[in-house]
Amino acid sequence: MSLLDQFQTYHYSLCLRLKMREELGDAFQVLFSHIMQKTYPGDFSATRPWGNLGDRKCDGWLASAKRNFACYAPQEAGLEATKQKLLSDFEGALPCKGDFWKEWFFVHNSYNGRLATDLLIEVEQLRKKYPDINFAVWGPPEISKLALSLPPHELAALLGPAPTSRELTDLGLKEIDDLLKHIEQSEPGEDGLLPTPKGKIEFNHFPSDIEGLLKLGFSKANVVKKYFATHPDPEYGDRVAARFRAEYTKMQGQGDSSDLIYEQLLRLITGPAMPPYKSLVSAYVVLAFLFEQCEIFERPTATLPQ
Length: 306
Known about the structure:
Order of helices and strands: HHEEEHEHEHHHHHHHHHH
CATH architecture of the largest domain: 3-Layer(aba) Sandwich
Helix content: 40-55%
Number of domains: 2
Distance between the termini: 35 Å
Structural class: alpha/beta
Strand order of the largest sheet: 1-2-3-4-5
């Protein structure tokens, strides 16, 4: 059982979603196998191709359940290509059905675990054709659930150390200053920092981990407010707000979802690679403050029911 505090749980949940989206092809299979080996030590076996024999369409095997896994994480997951991959992996594994495997799981990294209905129809047709086989489809939610059950030291080995609630409590002006120094300054926005209407988090339909990170970040928003209020440049806060509004407006115009936009804005603060975990505390708090105070993310058009 994992013994993470609330802040660490939200952090690791977000990191897992990012990692599964970014690890493609063989890298995704390696990530999945690592999580399975740590979750089922001595039971799950990772596989690899062997000469002309290939891997017999087995990307991992859980001995106790006689479960065969087929992993798929392409750069572009077109419907027809994914259907062909699903069917070819299943048909290629059939010669080993019986003594070697009795369950067949299709594992993918599709955004938020959502698949096209046509793919689920294909799986249902396979169930009807092979009633003796247990079929299932796993995506990021199922994989994250397994990973988050690991001991903290295993999660740290996989994703790096996580910031703690204590470090959130101890956050000060210096940490905020160190983090914001590299952000490109834009011209001040016309409206600057604005008050946040009630219900804004709920209105944007964030995943639970981002919602949790925002709410915990609000608890230290006063530190960021003080940082901007005491900054030698009185317009610095408005320029930072304008920089984030510009990025938000661009992504919103592309039709990106709230969680994708949050992740991109987080990268704007931290840079392309996740920084040391102590800097992540500052990043989460700064983003929570900007969400709370400036014009990023949608504002509810009417008060939500209490």
